[in-house]
Amino acid sequence: MHSTDPTGDEAEGRGNQVTTGPRLRGRDREVSAAREALDVVRGGRGACVVVEGAPGVGKSRFLAELDRMARRFGFDVVSVRADEFDQYAAGAALQSALHSLGGSERAPAATDDQRLRLLDSIADALEDKAQRAPVAVLVDDAQWVDPATLYALRTLPGRLAASRILWVLAVRSETERPTVARVREDLERLGARWLTLGPLPQRELQHIAADVLGARPSPALAGLLRGVAGNPFLAIELVRAFADTDAVKEAGVAGLLHEGIPVGFRQSVAARLDRLPEDAVRLLQIGSVLGREFDLGTAARMLGRQVGSLLSGVEAALNSGLLSADGPRLAFRHDIARQAVHDNLPLAVRTALHREAAESLRGTGARPAEVAWHVVMSGGPVDDEAVTTMTTAVRDMASSAPDAAADLAQRIAGLLPPHDRRRVALLTEAAEYLGRTRRVHEALDLVDATLPEGLEPVQEARLRLVAAEIHQASGDDAAAMTHLQKALDLPGLPSDLHVRLRKTKATGHVYLGDVTAAEQTGAGLVEASYHSDDPAVVVSAMVFQSQADFYRGHLDSALELAEEATRRAGTQSAVLYLRPPRIPALWLGTVLTVTDRLADTERTLREGQREAEALGLGWSLPHWHAARACALLEQGALDDAAVEAEAGLMVADELEVTPVNPQARSVLALVEIRRGDLAKARDHLRAAETGAGKKAQRYGPWVSLARACLADAEGEDGEAAAALEASFARQEPTRLLALAPSHWPTIVRIALAGEDRSLGQAVSGALRGLTVQNETRQTIGAVRAHVDGLLDLDPGALETAMTGYRSTGRPLALAAACEDLGELLAASADTTRAIPYFEEAGRLASASGAGRDQERIRRRLRRLGVRTAPVRSSTAGPQGWGDLTESEQKLIPLVVEGLTNRAIADRLYVSVHTVNTHMKHIFAKLGINSRVELTRLAIEGGIGAADDD
Asked: Are 205 and 235 spatial neighbours (Cβ–Cβ below 8 Å)?
C-alpha cells in the first residue's frame, strides 16, 4: 500500500502529493461539489465525499484534481492508495501516512486488541494537524485498503466532525467486500456527499484524445473511441497505443467483461504484447500475477533469470507504456492494464503462478499479507509453510481488525481438508476474533457449525471455552456455563486448559451471584495460584477471593484483598491485561464505592482508566467508563455521571461491542429520572432491557432498579415494587451489593409505597448479613439507619443516617434521608419541624442537578406554606451558555487556547472520550457544530484562553 506519493508538480500547500495526468474532462459538476466540500472545511467543519465508479472511469484523476485544489487553498493533504493484497495487511496505512508527514505515533502496546489505540493515535494526529491548517484525507482504491484503515474511516469522520478535515474515498462501484460496504453505509449516515463518476460522453472522449495527441483525432479514431464505453482511461490507452497503427481495428465495439472492462481492451493489450520482445512479455505476465507494483528481483526469480538479463525486457515494457518505474518497484500504470494481462493468462497458469509467487515471497520474508493474497488466489492446496504464513497474517491483523482476521481465517480453513487439525484451530480463532465485534451471532453460529465435526476432546474444549467467553462478554452467563461444563466433562484435557475452564466457570458463578458454587469450583485453584511464578495468576486469584468475600458480605477483607491486588498490579505490567472483572483497579473501584472512602473511588478509577487508555487496552474502557458513571452517580454528580455513561457507550460503539452495556444505560435512565425527562429515561431503559434481555443476570439489579424508579416516577407504585421483587426479595447481600449503597434505601421506599413490606424487610435482613468493621462502618451504618427509619417510622434513625451520609460524601442519599425525615415530621402535629429538612433536601437536589427531585420538594414546601423559586428549565440554541455544566465550562478556555481534545484530556487528567462527549454536549447546547464557532462565541462572550498556571 502507498501512504505517500512524492511525485507531482504542485508546490502550493503541504503534504504528500498525487500524480496528475491529462486535463480532467467532463467532471465540472463533480469538481464543483468537491470545491463546496473544501469550502465547508475551510469554514471550520468536517465533511465527507465518496467518489465511486467503474475501473478507469477517472477516480484517481479526480482525486489528483482535488489534491491540487486542496493545496491551493492551504490544506494539508494525506494520501493513501491501496493494492489488492492490502486487504490482508496488518497495521494502518493512514497511520503510516500521517507519521511520514510528521504526525505523532504512539509506541505499540503489548495487547491483543489495539483498535481503540489505533483510532486514538490517528485521531490525535489529524486533530493536531487540523488545528494548524485544514486537512484533506484522500483514500484511493478504498475497496482494497487495509482493514485497520477501513476501521478508522468508519469511525473517525463522526468523532472528528467538528475538526477541519475533509475525508474523500474513491471506491469501485459494487465492490463485494463487506467491510467496505459498511464504511459506505456509515459515511452515508453522516451525510457524506456521493459523487458517481459515470461514462463520459463522446465529445469529452474526443477532447481527451486531442489532449493526448496534441491535435484533433481523425474521424476513424473518433469512431473507435465509441468502443471504450465512455471510459477515459481506455480512451487514453487506445489513443496512445493504436492511433498510428492498423491494429486499432482489433479494439472494435465490444461487450463488457466483469467490472466494466471491454473485451476489446483485453484484445488490444494482447495485441500490444504480441509486438513486444518475449522478455518483456514474460516480465509483464509475471508482474501481473505479483500485483500492480512488483519487485523486479522477485519477478526474475520466478522466471529463473538474473536481474541483469531482464534489462532489455524492462526497457521494452516501459516503452510500451504499460509499466512505469517512478519508484523503487516497477508498477503497471493502471490496474486495468495489469488485470487485462493477468486475465489473458489461462486459469491453470494463473493459479500455478500465484502458488509459485506465494512460495517465492515467503522465502524472501515478504509481508504475510502479500503471501496470503497469493495463496488465496491460487485456490489451494495449501502446504504447511503456507498455512503457517497465513496464520501469521491472521494474527497480525487480529489486534487492529479482528473481523477481517476472522474472515481470512475462515477463508484459509476453507482451503484445508475437512478433518485437518489446522482447520479447526483456524475456525476457533475466527470465532474468537468475531466475538470481539458486533458479529457475535456469527461467532456463535460458527461454533455451532464446527462442534458436530467430530472434534478431538482438546479441540472441542478450546472451542467451547471461546464460546463461553463470548457468552460471558455479551451477558449470557447461563449459556456460558453450559459450554464450560460440557468442556470440563471431556476426557484427557491438559492441565492448563482444565484450569482455564475452571477459572472461567468460577467467574461465571460470581456473575450469577452464586458465591458458594464459585468457591466450590475454585477450590484448590486459589491456593495453587498463590504459589505460581506468574504474577498475573497470583493477582487474579486475589481478585477472585476478594469478589467471593465481597458478595458474601465480608466487606473489609474484600477491600484488603482488592487493594493488595491493585498494588501488585502496579508493579507487574503483565497483570494489566487481565480481563474485566478481574482488572484489580477496576474491581477496587467497585469495592470502594460501598466503603467510607468514596472519594478514593473516583481517583482509583480515573487513574486506572487513564493507564488502560495509554496502554491501548480499548476493550476495557467501556467497563471503566461505566464504573466511573456509577461512582459519580453515588457522589451526586449527575451531569458527570451521564457523560461517563455516554462515553462508555460511544467507546463500545467504536469497538463494535455488543450488546450495549445495560449498566451504563441504567445509569443514564436513573439520571434522566432525577432530571425529570421521563421520555429519555424510558428510551434508556428500553435499550438497557434490550441489552440485558432475560439472560443477563449480571446487570439485572441495575435494570430492575431503573425500571422500578421509572414506574415510581410515573405513579405506578405496585408495578415499581414488583420490578424489584425478583432481584432483591432474598435476605442475602449478593444482589444488593451489585448496587451502590445510596440505592438500597430507595428499594425499601419503593417497596413500602407499593405495600410490599416483606421486600423492605428482606433488604434490612441482607444489610444485617454484612460484616462491617473499620472502613465501611459509617456508610453501612448510615444505610442501615436509613432503612430502619423507613421501616419503623423512626425519626432518630433517619437523623443518624443523615449524620453518616454527611461524613461519607453522598449528597443524594443525604437529600433522600432529609426528605424522608421531612415527610415523617410533616405527618405529625408539628409540621414546622419538617420545613428545614425539605429545604436542605431541595438545596442538595439543586446542587446535584436533580431537577425533578427539586420540583417535587418545592411542591411539598408550598403545601406547608413555604414559597420557593421555580426550578430553572434548560434552554437550547445559542442562548444556552447558562446550561453548560461546570465540567463543560472548564473545557471552553482550553478550546480557545487551541488545545486538541487529547491535550485537553491530558490537562484535565480525564479520558479523551470523556472530553469528546463533553464537546458533543457543548455543541448541542450552543447550537453549533465546530470548534471554530465555539472559539468565536467564547471570545465574543469574553471567555479567553486558560491561564498557564
From this structure: yes
CA distance 348 to 464: 40
3-state secondary structure of 545: helix
* Helices of type H across 226-291: 232-242, 263-274, 278-290
Ranges of the chain with pLDDT below 70: 1-21, 100-113, 241-266, 381, 572-582, 615-616, 657-660, 691-697, 771-775, 871-880, 944-949
Q: Residue 70: in which H helix or E strand, if any?
A: helix 59-72
CB-neighbour burial class of residue 746 (10 A; exposed 0-12, middle 13-18, buried 19+): buried
What is the phi/psi pair of residue 186, to 5°? -65, -40
CA distance 859 to 850: 15
Q: Which of 690, 540, 566 is nearest to 522 (CA)?
A: 540
Residue 138 pairs with which residues in a beta bridge? Answer: 79, 168
The grid cell for 112 is: 491483543
Please name the residues in contact with 175: beta carbons below 8 A apart, sequence gap of 6 or more.
143, 181
Q: Are the C-beta atoms of 389 and 359 separated by less than 8 Å?
A: no
Distance, in Å, from the CA atom of 860 to the CA atom of 502, rounded to the nearest integer, reads: 56
DSSP 823-872: HHHHTSS-GGGGHHHHHHHHHHHHHHT-HHHHHHHHHHHHHTT---PPPP
Given this model, what pLDDT does residue 117 score?
79
Neighbours of 869 (CB within 10 A): 7
Supply the pLDDT for residue 740: 94
How far from chain centre, in Å, is Cα 871? 39
Per-residue CA distances from 395 to 277, 631, 762, 782 (Å): 43, 37, 51, 53
Would you state the cell numbers that stand for residue 53, as one nine-digit string? 465508479
Q: What is the DSSP string of 341-385?
A: HHHHS-HHHHHHHHHHHHHHHHHTT--HHHHHHHHHHHT----HH
Q: H/E/C letters for each residue in 301-324?
A: HHHCCCHHHHHHHHHHHHHCCCEE
Q: How far is Cα 666 from Cα 705, in angstroms, rounded to an integer?
A: 8
Contact 227, 254 (CB under 8 A): yes
Q: Which residues contact 185 (CB under 8 A, 6 or more apart)?
A: none
Q: 175 by DSSP, 3-state: which?
A: coil
**Of 912, 915, 650, 891, nearest to 122 (Cα)?**
912
Does residue 381 have a cis bond before it (omega within 30 degrees)? Answer: yes
Q: How high is the pLDDT of residue 581?
A: 56
Grid coordinates belonging to 631: 461512582
Whether the upstream peptide bond of residue 581 has omega within 30° of 0, thus cis, is yes
pLDDT at 871: 65
Instruction: Check residue 574 and give its pLDDT.
Output: 52
Distance, CA of 442 to CA of 435 (rounded, Å):
8
3-state helix, strand, coil in the chain (%, to 5): 65, 5, 30
Environment class of 876 (CB within 10 Å of its CB; exposed 0-12, middle 13-18, buried 19+): exposed
Cis omega (within 30 of 0) on the bond before 659? Answer: yes
Q: Residue 445: CB partners within 8 Å, gap ≥ 6?
A: none
What three-state secondary structure class fits 169?
strand
pLDDT in tens, 350-365: 999 999 999 899 888 8
User: Considering only CA atoms, which of 48, 285, 324, 39 is closest in space to residue 160?
Assistant: 48
DSSP code of residue 109: P
- HSE (side-chain half, CA atoms, 13 Å) at 708: 27
- pLDDT given for residue 255 in this prediction: 33
Integer Cα distance of 422 and 374 in angstroms:
19
CB atoms within 10 A of CB 716: 15
Calpha distance 432→444 (Å, rounded): 9
Angle, helices 912-926 vs 886-896, to 10°: value is 90
